[in-house]
Design a protein that fits this description.
about 220 residues; 6 strands; 7 helices; alpha+beta
Length: about 220
């Protein structure tokens, strides 16, 4: 044998067992020095660097935050819409019930006009009913001297020139529930105080003219 053949390279044995046979403990993986030094960050074993992973997590977090904010805004709008619809349904139901009681209020007004509600148990019942309906939001309108409003009043008769129309007589009261008009007031319209005050002046002028003509004769 030659000297070159007799000299063999040393054999290196690498123990890749994950459990130490002597102590029974789990061994930590050995990372090569050149692998640890390569790249901007340590390799996680699947080819993804820590910086890239941080960017990915940050992007997903921002996306989830935007989704949560959008969902919160949609839920708040939904709650406001449901509350608005619920209130509208309650007001509609109340207005329907109150409308059925307007005939009773008309009967009580007629009884009051005849003096039947000046005393006695019927007066107490009428006052309690009116108070209860007012607490629910019922309002009456239409009284003598108020300016005439065609959106609230229905005129069945009209006296005067109509320059400054006001309510002269109320034949039936009007009622509204909140912003909703349940019934228009049935009224008679006449001229306002300014027109009525100006009307008597004309006969006076005509009378003075007649007197002047008489004196000239």
């Amino acid at each position: 044998m030659t000297q070159g053949n007799s000299e063999q390279e040393p054999i290196t044995v690498v123990d890749n067992r994950k459990i130490d046979p002597e102590t029974g403990e789990i061994r930590e993986p050995v990372v090569a020095a050149d692998t640890a030094a390569a790249g901007p960050g340590p390799d996680l074993g699947n080819g993804v660097q820590t910086d890239t992973l941080a960017d990915t997590i940050g992007g997903e977090l921002a996306e989830r935050t935007a989704d949560l904010q959008r969902l919160t805004a949609e839920y708040a709008n939904y709650r406001r819409r449901v509350e608005r619809d619920r209130k509208a349904a309650i007001d509609t139901a109340k207005a329907s019930v109150v409308t059925e009681l307007l005939g009773v209020l008309d009967d009580l007004d007629r009884a009051r006009a005849h003096g039947d509600l000046e005393s006695g148990p019927l007066k107490s019942v009428a006052d309690k009913l009116a108070t209860a309906l007012q607490k629910q939001g019922l309002e009456e309108f239409g009284s003598e001297g108020e300016p005439f409003d065609p959106t609230l009043h229905e005129a069945v008769q009209h006296e005067g020139s109509g320059h400054d129309p006001v309510i002269g007589i109320v034949m039936r009261k009007g009622y509204r529930f909140g912003d909703r008009v349940l019934r228009h007031a049935l009224v008679g319209v006449t001229d306002g105080v300014s027109d009525l005050a100006a009307t008597p002046d004309q006969p006076s002028e005509e009378a003075s003219d007649i007197d002047a003509d008489t004196s000239d004769r």
